[in-house]
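Students often ask what a holo structure prediction actually looks like on paper. The answer is less mysterious than it sounds. You provide the chain, you provide the ligand, and the output is a string of discrete structure tokens encoding the 3D arrangement of the protein together with KG4.
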Amino acid sequence: MLILAIETSCDETAAAVTEGRHILSSVINTQIEEHKKYGGVVPEIASRRHCENISAVVDKALADAKKTYSDIDAVAVTFAPGLIGALLVGVNFAKGLAMSLNVPLIPVHHLRSHIAANYIDNEQLKPPFLCLTVSGGNSVITDVADYTKFSIIGQTRDDAAGECFDKSARAMGLSYPGGVNLDKIATTADFKKYPLPKPQIEDSIYDFSFSGLKTAVINTLHNASQKGETVDIPVLAATVRKRVCDMLIENTLLALEETGRKTLVLAGGVSANSELRTRLEQECKKREISFFRPELKYCGDNAAMVGVQAYFEYMNSNTAGPELNATATLPIDYI
Ligand code: KG4
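The corresponding structure tokens follow.
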């Protein structure tokens, strides 16, 4: 079954042609350079660029796969969650395409597709497993009982881990996308020099909170500047990175114990973080837990992962009609 998948949830216009877990083509048109000027994604600009680029990106995905529109068996699209104006471009394009080709339309949840990035060309990985999904807008520990059966075990109460990285990086003067650059320049953490707090959630051992940590980084930089002191940015970057990883890893290990799952999957843009990847791999090895994380090229937003999840959604009869709408916020266990 050949699926043409479309992704426009944030600042990447992406299209892919997929068949089950296999990727025939994956095209990503990123807007990073344009948003860099503003220090973050400007939603209206993102929507306008999606409008301009989507036809060419889809055409290239078909050409790269050496397929034509008539070869396509279904159209899949990210419909939630994300920037609403950005999502609407992809959803409307996909609806029109599915209708004109007379093929099924498959709506895909963005976080489900991030998890599916781990299935790409990897027949070994099958549910059930536990998954830590960390991106710019979400940080969630999910029990994945089946390809389309998810239950939330823990999640952030405020900012996502990616948001904490991005805003900390911006305050440190690093360019957008902050999380990537913070990870690149970070050296060795030093909590004596920069005593960043470790937020605890009283009524849930699995939930996260990152906004206090982000504020602490901003205050550290502000206080130093008021006193005319220089901040060792690579050390501060490593200290905040370690704090974020400590929280993500500790809660995930607790959830692994509680659920008894023997496989852990890491997903989302922050799964590209070097410390998070390495430390989770080591912790899983110690506990004889199988550990999976996406290839770096599939960590960020792309349509290949949308097509792969769409296949499983289709097999579970999760298709949509022309009334499909985009949704800015929607939990992963919505259905
Ligand atoms: O999943 P994603 O591409 O988009 C969303 O759906 O949010 O995630 C983007 C997030 C951004 O916050 C970005 O800074 C972060 O992932 N990110 C990283 C790294 N690479 C991307 N954060 C920390 N370390 C990285 N190496």
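The two ends are 23 Å apart (CA to CA).
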